[in-house]
Structures are given as structure tokens and as C-alpha cells.
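Record type: monomer structure entry
Structure origin: computed from sequence
Chain ID: A
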Amino acid sequence: MIHAYSAHGYTQRMWCYLQEMYPLAQRLPLALIIGAAVVLFTQSSLAEPHPALLLPLAVSSAAVFLLLLLLRLMDELKDVEIDRALFRERPLPSGRVRESDIRISMTAVAAAFVALHLLLPVTLLSAIPLLGYTVLMYRYFFAPTLLRENLFLNLATHNPVIPLIVLHCMIVTAAAADLPLAALDWDMLLRGALMLWMPMFAWEIARKIRAPEEENAYVTYSRLLGRHGAVALAFAAQSVAAASALSFVVAGSWSAIALLPLLAAWILLTLAYARFLLRPVPAHARLRVYGEAYAVMLMISVIFASWSAS
């Protein structure tokens, strides 16, 4: 939905911007689900799960929400020239929000992210480097021409922020339980971080897959790899996540029943990919929606499995 808000003040412009580009009704629950999945998974890996969940859940979920918002705001400025050429209806290139609005908001969100971690000061040791990584992303790791011209190199340098966020939330959980990092089961936690990362990696691929008639100057994975190659890459990452979840069942850590939401999502995803490959029309190319649903169902399965294991 496009809002006519260019004449409003900063607060009104940014409120309408959020409704259009970062809808709170979707992003707040998503941040809570991600935070809960990581916190409960980390708790389930402890020899003696800590009874206090509210503080690590609140800090982790808020950190996810703020960091994803910061990344969204940074993308507005990073991609402004591309948006002006190809997506002129978006808030910034259309003039409905100003660059100064985005910069002010970035500063406010970054400050809120740092202030949040004062609730558990030791977590600043991972929060500050994580924030620094987002700044490197914003600056295209000081190689903007190289990264803008190479979609895969851009993916390799930007997408690792997801497992870094997951690892940070694991550290928050440990800090809330007053546990040293050496006391954590890092073999299990790193496998869990991979499991939670892969659906988001796949989503990044899926959102840049288009039907042949939709391709234009915007560089997509379907244009570089062909639709079969792009779908195979996304599906492989999603299947790695499913296999990782299954490994916890095989190891006896989780109940297989908890993975039923993930199984249902995996079947739906398979059908969506098959439909697109067999008939690659624009109506069948909206694969990012299935990627988002799959990621959410995985995290819900992780929540159920970890809660029962704890």
C-alpha cells in the first residue's frame, strides 16, 4: 500500500514508512518468534536449564527487531540509485520520505540497540561487534563497486549477519543465566545456528527468483543461475535446515512430533517450487512468501521441540 505522506512531519512520515516497508504487525511477532526459538534452543542445550526466560527473551527479541529494522533502513540508502531507476514507487525514491529521515532513524535505532544491552552489560561484548558488522554492510565493506557488481559476493559478505544475530542471542541467553561461554555446548549451538540460518539464506535467494517475463535490469538469481539452478540452491539450503532439525530427533534430544509444522511447510515448499519449475509464470514466482512461511514454521518447530526438551 502506498501512502501519500511527503508533506507530513518526521514522525508521521516515518510511521507511514514503517507501515509500508517494515509493518510492525508482522515484524514484532517475527522478532518474538526468532528470539524465542534461539533462547529456548540455547536453554535446551544447557545441562541445567535456567528458569528465568523473560529477560533473555525480551532482550533477544528486541535486539532482533531493532537490528532488522536498522538493516532495512540502511538498505534504503544503499540501494537508492537502483530504486530510483527500477522501483520509483518506493518511499525514498518517490520523495515520500527524506534521506534525512532515514539517517535520523538509523541513529536512533542504533542507539536503542546499544541501550537495550545495558540490561545485561556483558552482552555489549557481542552487541557492539555485531553493530559494527552492520556498519561494514552499510559501507559495502568499503568495496561498493565490487560488491554491487557481484551478487554472489554480496550474498557471501552480507548474509552471515543472520548467524551472527543468532549467536548473539545465544550469548544473551547465557549471560542471563550467568554462565560463562565456555560452559555452553558449542557443538550443539553451532549446529543450531546453521539450522536457523539456512532458511534465511534460502529466503534471500527465493526473493530474487522471477519468472522469465519479469526479468529486467535488476540482477536476480534466476537470471544468473537459471530458474532451475536458483530453485535448487534455495531448496538445498532449506533441506539442510530440515536435516539439521531431524538430527536432533535422531540424537534423542527432540520429539519427532514437534517437527510436524516443519514437515508440513517442507511439503508445501516442494509443491510451490515444482509448480514454478513446471509453469514459470509470474503468479507462480512469488516464492519469497513460501520461504518466509518455511522459516517461521522451522522456528515454531524449534520452539516446541526445545520447550518439551527443557
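Annotation 1: The radius of gyration is 20 Å.
Annotation 2: The mean pLDDT is 93.
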